[in-house]
Each structure stands twice: as C-alpha cells, then as structure tokens.
Specification:
There is one protein chain. The chain has 295 residues and is an alpha+beta fold. A hairpin with a 5-residue loop joins strand 8 and strand 9. Strands 7, 8, 9, 10, 11, 12, 13, 14 and 15 form a nine-stranded mixed sheet that branches. The longest helix has 14 residues. The structure holds pyridoxal-5'-phosphate (PLP). The site of pyridoxal-5'-phosphate has 13 residues, from helix 6 and strand 13.
C-alpha cells in the first residue's frame, strides 16, 4: 500500500489523502490520467508520458496544472517518499470541484491533482511474461475518442471482469469491421502468419501507448518488419505469436485468444526478444528535471 499520496500540493498520509465528493472526476469522469513505469527507481519514458498528458488535457480543454519541470519533480518525489524501486506512478488531473453542473467551471476553479506510487514485483511480472497470458475478445463499446487518456474507464473495467470470468488476463476490443482495436489497458500486437509484426495504426480508436511507441524504436533497431495495419480476430488466432504492451507490463506474450492456442501455446521468440530488448532503448529519468517540450 502506498504510504504517501500527493493531493493538490500536499504529500499526505494514505488515510488522509482525500478529494471532494463533488470532484468532477468522481461526478463525470472529467479527467485525464497517466501511468508511468518505475524501474530501478527511475521513471521510464517520462517525456513521452508527459507529452501524451499535455495532449490529452488539451483535447478536453484543460491546461497542465503546473509547469512540466515541477510535475516531473512531484512524480519523482512521490516515488522517493514511497521508496518505490520497481512499480508504477499514477497521476490524475480532474477539472476540480464545484456544485454539480455539466458545464465546465471557470478558471477560478482549481484542478485536482493526485499522484500515487505503487511497488510491483518485477519477478512476478517476469514470471507472468514467461508463462504468457490469455485474452478474451469482445465488441468495443467505448466512446469514439479512445486516443484521449480519460478516466472514463467503466467499459474497460466491465471488459476486464468479463475476461477474468473466463480465466483470461486481458480483454481485446473488436470494432464493427471485425478488427481488433486494442486491449482494455494495453495495445494489441501479433506476429502474423507471414512472420511480420502487426499492430493497429494510431487513430482515434486506440490510445497511442508510450510502450507501443518505444517498442517501434526497438523493432527498427532490431531490423524487424513492422506493419501498422489492423488485424482481425481470425488473423490473431492464426498468428505465430501475439502480445500486449503497456507501461504496467512492458511486452507480455499472449498464448490464448478466446480459448484458442496461439502458436505453440507458449511465449514465442519474437515476443521474448522484444521484452528482453525493451529497457535498452527507453528513456530513464535521472534526478535532473525532465526537459520542457511543447507545453
Ligand atoms: N491502451 C489503453 C486503452 C490503455 O489503457 C493503455 C494503458 O493504460 C495502453 C493502451 C498502453 O499505454 P502505455 O503503453 O502508455 O501504458
């Protein structure tokens, strides 16, 4: 359990870290979040996560609540105060608190900012990746702007529960054309029957995963073939390999889709190689401020 949580400028003990009942995040899901991997005490790919944060905020007409350098400091400070070596740091920004009204509040209402750091066992994640996970496919009921990392996660939560009920770890959403969009909290990939890496191109139907973007750097360094093209469930089931990417699980092999075994039913060589190479390519935070970009 985290010991210290940052809420609106204060580092509070876990039990005292509260936001108001009329916070717009709670009332409307009116907020944006990010999750960043922490590895050996460093933030992984913080620049890309803060870029996406600024973009998501801009897409729903919100501003960065503080300069980027200050934000990076708060993230590192929460990690430090919780003594997290490996795990994640979560941040959420909502449009603030005021009597419930669909219309946006004026600039006098201060945004709510929460930052939580959590340890996670690297050994457990590696063990899960060594075995591989199962996924379940289901129709994508989410809104039309999945490229924005909003806190409206009810469809994702319902999908994960449906997956869990069938012994799967992740849900893969499928659009009306029968193409896999992405996972409930990850991007979806296959190594197709012809041996090419395939993932859906970034459009409004998926979140541009930071892990996805960094993995594309890894793939090009390794000289592997990548097609940013949608794939169907049938193509996924016939694939040599499948895997998911996210800051919380890096590259995690998928060994079954809707109960159908993928490849040999064990994590394949390409997925394992990409997972092993990933952290050679990432940006690691230091105690220097993250350079300001864009915002
Ligand atoms: N797609 C969705 C819907 C997600 O929620 C996430 C992560 O939470 C991802 C993709 C992967 O994004 P990232 O690699 O930045 O963690």
């Amino acid at each position: 359990m985290p010991r210290i949580i940052y809420v609106n400028g204060r580092y509070l003990a876990y039990g005292a870290a509260m936001v108001h009942a009329e916070d717009r995040g709670f009332q409307f899901g009116d907020g944006i979040y990010e999750v960043i991997e922490v590895r050996d005490g460093a933030l992984i790919d913080a620049t890309r996560h803060l870029d996406r944060l600024a973009r998501s905020l801009g897409e729903i007409a919100m501003e960065m609540p503080m300069p980027r350098v200050a934000f990076a400091h708060v993230l590192r400070e929460v990690v430090r105060r919780n003594r997290v070596t490996d795990g994640t740091v979560y941040l959420q920004i909502t449009r603030g608190t005021r009597p419930r009204d669909f219309l946006f509040p004026g600039p006098e209402v201060r945004q709510t900012v929460v930052v939580v750091a959590r340890p996670a066992s690297r050994a457990a994640a590696d063990a899960r990746a060594a075995t591989g996970i199962a996924v379940k496919t289901l129709a994508d009921p989410r809104w039309a702007r999945c490229d924005i990392k909003t806190v409206m996660l009810l469809p994702a939560s319902l999908a994960k529960e449906a997956a869990r009920a069938e012994g799967a770890k992740e849900a893969w959403f499928v659009d009306e054309a029968g193409h896999v969009t992405e996972g409930a909290s990850s991007n979806a990939w296959i190594v197709d029957a012809a041996g090419r890496l395939r993932t859906r191109p970034t459009d409004e139907a998926i979140l541009r995963g930071v892990t996805r973007t960094t993995l594309i750097d890894v793939i090009s360094r390794l000289g592997l073939e990548l097609l940013e093209e949608p794939f169907t469930i049938a193509e996924a089931k016939a694939a040599r390999e499948a895997f998911i990417t996210a800051a919380t699980n890096v590259v995690t092999p998928v060994i079954a889709i809707d109960g159908v075994r993928i490849g040999d039913g064990v994590p394949g060589p390409v997925s394992r190689r990409l997972r092993a190479a990933f952290h050679d390519v990432v940006e690691r935070s230091t105690n220097e401020p993250v350079l300001a970009r864009k915002c």
